[in-house]
Amino acid sequence: MSQAQRGPLGQGRDGAVAVAGFIGSQRETHRIPAAVACRALGVCRSWYYKWRGGALPPSAERRRRLAAEIRRLFELHEGKYGSPRITDDLRDEGWRVSENTVAASMREQGLVARRKRRRRSTTRPGKGRWRAPDLVNRDFPAQKINQKWFGDGTEIGTDEGKLHLVSVLDMGSRRVLGFALAEHHNAQLAYGALAMAIAVRGGQVPGVVFHTDQGSELRFKGSSQRRCFGSIVGVHSALRRVSSRRVSCGAGC
Fold it and tell me: For the chain, which domains are there?
C-alpha cells in the first residue's frame, strides 16, 4: 500500500477517493500535472484515473449504507434501541452483520441508547395506624397446603396502558390459586383474587394464614373492606388475616 493511502490524506481504501480528489485539485489550482502529483504521492496514474470519479469501493459503500440504516433505525425507535436490538432489526431486513460491527458504527456516529428507567415499585405502605401482626414470622415455606397463602400485586405495562395483577400463592404447593387483572389497583382487585383462591380450594379454608405486604389494597383494612372480606370467606374466623412489610424473595417477590 502506498504512503498516500496510509498517510494523513487517506486511511486504507476509504481514503482512495480523498487522495484522488487531492491530486485533481492540485492539477486545477496549481496546474501540477497528475503524473507529477501521483509520483510525489507514490501512486500510479492508472490508480488515480480509477478513483478520480469519486466512486467508493464496494466495501466502503456498504459501510456507508449500513451506517445510514443504523441511524435510521436508531431514530425510528427514538434512541431507545442499543446495538443488540438494532442488529436484530438489520438481520430481519436481510443484512449480514455482527453486533460488534453495529456497536462500532454507533460509536463512530455518537449514537448512545437511552437507559431504561427502573420501574418504581407499585407496593406502598398503608398510611393508617393499624398494623396486623406478622403471623408467619417471615417463615414463608409451608409443610402442607392451605397452611400459608401469599398475596402479591404487580404492574404490567402494555401498548394501551398499565394493567394491575394480584395473585394468591399457596406456599405449600407453590401453586397460584387465584388471580385478578384490571386497569385499576384497588381492594376489589385483591378480593377477586382471594375469592378465586378460596373457590379453587372448595370454599372452605379454615385456619389458613393469608400473608401480604403493607400495601393498602392488600391489607383489607377499613370497615367496608372487612365486611367484604367476611362475605368472601363466609365467616370472619375462616381465614386469618396477616399483613407485614415486604416479604423476602423466597416468597415470590
Answer: 3-51 (no CATH), 70-109 (no CATH), 148-251 (3.30.420.10)
For helices 99-109 and 58-76, what crossing angle results, to 10°? Answer: 80
Task: Give pLDDT tens digits for 68-109.
Answer: 999 999 999 989 899 999 999 999 999 999 999 999 999 999
